[in-house]
Amino acid sequence: MNLPLVYHPDYVAPIPEDHRFPMEKFSLLYGLLLENGTAHPDRIHRPELPPRSWIELVHDRTYIDQYCTGTLDAKAQRRIGLPWNPAVVRRTQLAVGGTVLTARLALQHGLACNLAGGTHHAFPDYGSGFCIFNDLAIAAKVLLEEGQIQKVLIIDLDVHQGDGTAWIFRSDPRVFTFSMHCEDNFPLRKQASDLDVPLPVGLEDDAYLQCLDRHLDDLLSHVKPDLVLYDAGVDVHGDDRLGKLALTDTGLFRREMQVLTTCIGAGYPVACVIGGGYCPDLHTLAQRHALVHRAAAQVWHWAKL
After folding, report:
1. Domain that holds residue 36
2. Distance between CA atoms of 99 and 119, rounded to whole angstroms?
3. CB count, 10 Å around CB of 290?
């Protein structure tokens, strides 16, 4: 059996070609994973549209209605940063369904990856920073409300702080939020995660990985999660146009292996989402997003031996 991967063709939605959030990266990522053998067409799990009740576990009903019907005011739409059309609404919901499915597969198999997700800037009543509905928060809430899990650890290594996720779970002891991010970057106003690790501009591979190493084992032993949700944003890369750190491709792969081997080795199931990445060369960007899937495939093979 191969590593469980979650993907839907409608993760790609039509938006202007010059937009700095290119939807094409999702299909390029899928194609790359097929090409290198990480993904197999007959082993891809396809999400369905989630019931509205799942989204309402996190988001305000008025906000959901206004976004889905295209009646958000112009200011709220600009804050999201994505153009509105019915296809974007559909892919937004499918990505949420995909992260819930990925979390279920992780509980069943120990490790699973979504080829989308990581919309950690979405708050209950508004979207922000290309994030509309918070898939990480919704997945955690769904599984908690169903009683499948009692404790969640969210490891957010996107270059931007997971402010929406931190706010949503600010008073929920069932979810521990950990964000390691560039201190001088979006969002300007940070929220309080359970553990925030702000990093200086320009931090390189070794210093970054040493910082992560100082926290990861203690987090797992302290939280003892039933599930880890891992946001593997690649906007920490030195060439990313919206990041301010300086990791290399090698550093990114080392990070993914460090997170996954530590969690899986300690017996904690992990559901991965791809998070942010804003390289102008979409093929290069897809290759960076593929690193977490390549690492997961290696860890999967190791864990199944």
Report:
1. 22-304
2. 10
3. 24
